[in-house]
Design brief:
The complex is a heterodimer of chains A (110) and B (140). With 110 residues, chain A is α/β, with parallel strands linked by helices. In chain A, 40% of the residues lie in helices and 31% in strands. Chain A has one domain: STAS domain (Transcription Regulator spoIIAA), CATH 3.30.750. In chain A, helix 1 (25-37) runs parallel beside helix 2. The radius of gyration of chain A is 13 Å and the shape is globular. The relative contact order of chain A is 0.18. Chain B starts with a strand and ends with a strand. Chain B is an alpha+beta fold and 140 residues long. Chain B has a five-stranded antiparallel β-sheet with strand order 1-2-3-5-4. Chain B is globular. Chain B has one domain (4-138): Histidine kinase-like ATPase, C-terminal domain (Heat Shock Protein 90, 2-Layer Sandwich). The chains are: A alpha/beta (110), B alpha+beta (140). The interface between A and B is medium-sized, with 27 and 27 residues.
């Protein structure tokens, strides 16, 4: 499991490879907060290579969303597979996040 | 639940780094048993991961030297996971917080037990040589 970060235009794109769970959520949080600290405002987290997410992983996304918004930024999510979509629907987090089917659509939505 | 057998019974140190390995073992056994793909990729990994992190972080309070025991029991009808920690235990029936209300939706924590209940057919807790959380999922 790992997180890779790259810049596409003005957007910081984070790929979550593997699981987003209690054992690695802080790593994701810190990486995004570091970019926010540098002054980045637009963030996209891409889940195309993600297995499953647990409640602490979902919690980190909620926390990041708040922190980014507080700094006047925006967070988008993309490429949830069917299982992840179900998870977001069960927890109603699909109503909290702007979620796109593809990375391209998410990038266009900023 | 009819005749049942233990699919695995292991103890891990009380450290969240071990969760992914246990979950992968459970998924592998479930795939061998031809459990549906959705249950193998969503219900089992997420619910088991929640029970394990609860046991490690809350039950054992992330204390080094403690252990968590995980038993998987299979019958013709059900899959049962029992996660045992060394903590004082808690009553799952008393924890009824709904993380989907407007008030709770934006909170970082409080989705673990909710997800276990949503993804399993039954979630129970009791004392039996430790604090046991039992997750039951019907195979069909």
């Amino acid at each position: 499991m790992s997180f890779s970060i790259k810049k596409q235009g003005e957007v910081v794109v984070v790929d979550v490879e593997g699981q987003l769970i209690v054992g690695n959520r802080q790593e994701l949080k810190q990486k995004v907060l570091d970019e926010l600290e540098k002054g980045e405002k637009k963030f996209l987290i891409d889940f195309s290579q993600t297995g499953y997410i647990d409640s602490s992983g979902l919690g980190v996304l909620v926390s990041l969303s708040k922190k980014i918004r507080e700094q006047g930024g925006e967070l988008r999510l993309a490429n949830l597979n069917d299982d992840l979509q179900t998870l977001f629907e069960l927890t109603k987090l699909d109503t909290l996040f702007q979620i796109s089917d593809t990375r391209e659509r998410a990038l266009e939505s900023f | 639940m009819g005749e049942s057998r233990v699919a695995f019974d292991l103890r891990i140190p009380s450290d969240v780094e071990y969760i992914e390995g246990v979950v992968e073992l459970a998924r592998q056994r479930c795939r061998e048993l031809k459990i549906s793909a959705a249950k193998c990729s969503l219900n089992i990994p997420v619910a088991l991961s929640e029970a394990l992190s609860n046991a490690i972080l809350r039950g054992n309070e992330a204390t080094g030297g403690k252990q968590v025991r995980i038993r998987a029991i299979i019958s013709d009808t059900d899959l049962v996971f029992e996660v045992v920690d060394e903590g004082p235990g808690f009553d799952v029936d008393e924890c009824i917080r709904d993380c989907t209300t407007e008030e709770n939706l934006t909170k970082e924590e409080g989705r673990g037990l909710f997800l276990m209940r949503q993804l399993m057919d039954r979630v129970e807790s009791f004392r039996d040589n430790g604090n046991v959380v039992r997750l039951t999922l019907h195979r069909e």
